[in-house]
Write a structure and sequence with these properties.
The complex is a heterodimer of chains A (83) and B (196). Chain A is an alpha+beta fold and 83 residues long. In chain A, 28% of the residues lie in helices and 29% in strands. Chain A has a single domain, classed as Alpha-Beta Plaits (2-Layer Sandwich), CATH 3.30.70. By secondary structure, chain B is α/β, with parallel strands linked by helices. Chain B folds into 2 domains: 81 residues, 2-Layer Sandwich (Translation Initiation Factor IF3), CATH 3.30.110.40; 107 residues, 3-Layer(aba) Sandwich (Hypothetical Protein Ychn, Chain: A). Chain B contains 7 helices and 9 strands, in the order βαβαββαβαβαβαβαβ. The chains are: A alpha+beta (83), B alpha/beta (196). The interface between A and B is small, with 11 and 11 residues.
Chain lengths: 83, 196
């Protein structure tokens, strides 16, 4: 299971990437999947187990995650209601 | 209708088994069962390249590929339409996509390469020149993506002169070193050349 975080802007994504990588969290910057949005955007993908830590780091640094999705093994997305 | 169970088989065995099974039937449906998404993708890609249609159903952890082999005449037409775009070459001459901010360019390049994994058209080659060779060298953020592309059968060529210039000759991690003869020839022979 993977987590996909969406942010307000590409600048936020870049900030979040730097921050999370600096804290040793394994993440990947990915194009926002078509199933989620047709906008040209990028998102951050993390593997399960690190999303809680990642979220708290982001919150501490006042970078808000706009939407959060989970992605299962075969690539299906599901929107998480609570972030 | 035959059912071929490829669970537990390592790549490329499911593709080979499917190929043999397809050769046995003239027309109609066969079902291939695999237990992982990589094999599922590989078999799907193979049967499509053979002009078959395929529908995939998941059951638990397994994938059931319902493959329709068309009659020879219909298949011929399907294969011909695929042949039209047979040789797609992607030419990447920078580690950044587009001209402008470099941090943005790096993100866009990663996005572009990742997206290639999801698109049905499979290029035959990816050619990396100038700072583009940083993408295939140690420390690159896209090594895993390039490895997956390479497993899909896309040849990844990195310009040797460029690797040498950037001091990366010993640090190439995916694909192979190439030279200007190969590169120029690939560019000239391509049916379609993509420069992102």
């Amino acid at each position: 299971m993977k987590y996909v975080f969406l942010f307000e802007s590409v600048h936020r994504v870049m900030k979040a990437e730097k921050l999370l990588k600096g804290k040793g969290i394994k993440i990947d910057v990915i194009p926002v999947p078509r199933e989620i949005s047709s906008d040209c955007g990028v998102a951050i993908e993390l593997s399960g187990n690190s999303e809680v830590e990642a979220l708290s780091i982001l919150t501490e640094n006042r970078i808000s995650v706009v939407e959060c999705y989970t992605r299962d093994l075969i690539g299906r997305f599901q929107k998480k209601k609570e972030i | 209708m035959s059912v071929i169970d490829c669970r537990g088989l390592a790549c490329p065995q499911p593709v080979i088994t499917t190929k043999q099974a397809l050769e046995q039937v003239k027309e109609g449906e066969i079902i291939v069962i695999v237990d992982n998404s990589v094999s599922c993708n590989n078999v799907e890609r193979f049967v499509r390249s053979q002009g078959c249609s395929v529908e995939i159903k998941e059951k638990g952890e397994d994938f059931y590929l319902h493959i329709q082999k068309l009659s020879e005449k219909d298949r011929g037409e399907a294969v011909r339409s695929e042949e039209k775009i047979r040789d797609v070459v992607i030419y990447i001459n920078s580690q950044f996509l587009g001209i402008g901010d470099e941090a943005l360019g790096a993100i866009l390049m990663r996005s572009f390469l990742k997206t290639l994994l999801d698109i049905e058209i499979i290029p035959s080659r990816l050619i990396l020149v100038n700072s583009g060779v940083r993408l295939s060298s140690e420390g690159s953020e896209v090594l895993e993506t390039l490895r997956t592309l390479s497993e899909k059968g896309i040849e990844i060529l990195s310009c040797g002169t460029c690797l040498d210039f950037y001091g990366l000759k010993e640090k190439l991690k995916v694909g192979r070193i190439s030279n200007m003869y190969d590169i120029a020839q690939s560019l000239l022979e391509a049916d379609r050349l993509i420069k992102p």
